[in-house]
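Is S-adenosylmethionine placement plausible here? Inputs below.
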Amino acid sequence: MISNNILSFAKSVICEVVEPGCIGVDATVGNGYDTVFLSEMAGSEGRVFGFDVQEQAVKQTEERLNEECLPQNWTIFHSGHENMLELIPAEFHGLVNVIMFNLGFLPGSDKTVITKSETTLVAIKASLEILAKGGMLCIAIYAGHPGGDEEDLAVREYCTGLDYHAYRVIQSEMVNKPGYPIRILFVTKL
Ligand SMILES: C[S@@+](CC[C@H](N)C(=O)[O-])C[C@H]1O[C@@H](n2cnc3c(N)ncnc32)[C@H](O)[C@@H]1O
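Reply from A.M.:
I modeled the complex. Tokens:
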């Protein structure tokens, strides 16, 4: 596999754990690209839940999903991902196969609306609860913007401290990228 983009690399890893009928969560829908990816992977028998605090992102994602003529397997919540335990119906808890976080701000939008370490950590802990055994959490972390370095450190510190007997955590980074780093954490629940 050749990838010139770390996010497409992340998707190729996710493809290893998802199959038709899977349950996915896009914790930061933004422009909806990751939600479309999850909806396609899940197919008509699967389910996808999405979250974003920006109304514009929710609308954009719903429009994109409709344009792509994907099965109606998705529900997008105009709410922070920190509320996922309450908003994702309990019948899906423990059955979720993949959860994607793409942190930071939405490119081309209001750069002051960013994910924040405090709520991101609440959402990551909730994600670990609702993941199925063998399920994967994929977190794309951006440093460099105001608040980004703090979130990058907090998320990596939390994930580095996860019990090795319960989770496996792999970090990936395009190390020759100029400027600020983008890191991906893959957390697998054993
Ligand atoms: C980097 S963008 C996501 C890009 C998106 N995955 C895509 O494919 O276009 C980050 C998104 O996180 C959203 N966000 C910020 N705080 C959030 C929160 N507490 N819960 C959910 N989304 C949040 C922002 O509104 C923004 O749309």
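Short version: Residues 28-34, 51-54, 57, 80-82, 102, 104, 106, 113, 115, 119 surround S-adenosylmethionine (CB under 6 Å).
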